Input
Amino acid sequence: MAYEQESIALMATGTKSRTKPGRPLKPLITKEAAITAAIDLVDREGLDGLSVQAVARVMNVTAPSLYYHFKDKDELLQLVARALLREVGQQSHETTDWEERAVELAVATRRVILRHCHAAPLMLRFFPRNLMLGAYETTLRDCPYPPHTHAAILESIEKLTYGASLFAAAAEAYHNPTMPMFEATRYPLLADALAKAPGDDEALFVESIRLLFDGFRLRYGGNKR
Output
């Protein structure tokens, strides 16, 4: 351990440590480190492999010491979901254009959910909406549509983003294609649609989001309050 190595070095030089004996310079366990370990564990082994005991083994600590930070597994799972949502905020960038900002946030959400596809179900079970309040307020602050449309706009963006992202994450987690193989001669219209679709799944997602905004403009009229 780092503390033991430092003590040996100090003894060798004849210098006394100012740290109280037996007390590490830094805490061995922090809630943040445990959450990071839990996310890494889920990424490798899936949700079935996650438990307080498993996280303790990864961190080389005892399970009772982790229960000091988490009362049970559900609390740990809830904090993992919150950490993923915070990661979304770190991935998105500020832009002055309302629509572009919303598109970037939707794309960042999808990327984080796909990066942690095994943890994606937690976003449904423990969706930390209280963390979203600031984002909702910021989105509506300069929304170009009338106030009576705001609730429907938020609902549309959120459900399309999370629905599409969780669907893709489930396919990724279970190694299933988002669209199964099929005979083009039997389903020619579907084959043609897929052949002429944007280059990859993310591009198709972005096009879907932009189509949603086209609908907002058509129904509500942009820049009208």
Observations:
- Residues 150-173 form the longest helix (24 residues).
- Residues 1-21 have pLDDT under 50 and may be disordered.
- The radius of gyration is 24 Å.
- The chain has eleven helices and no strands.
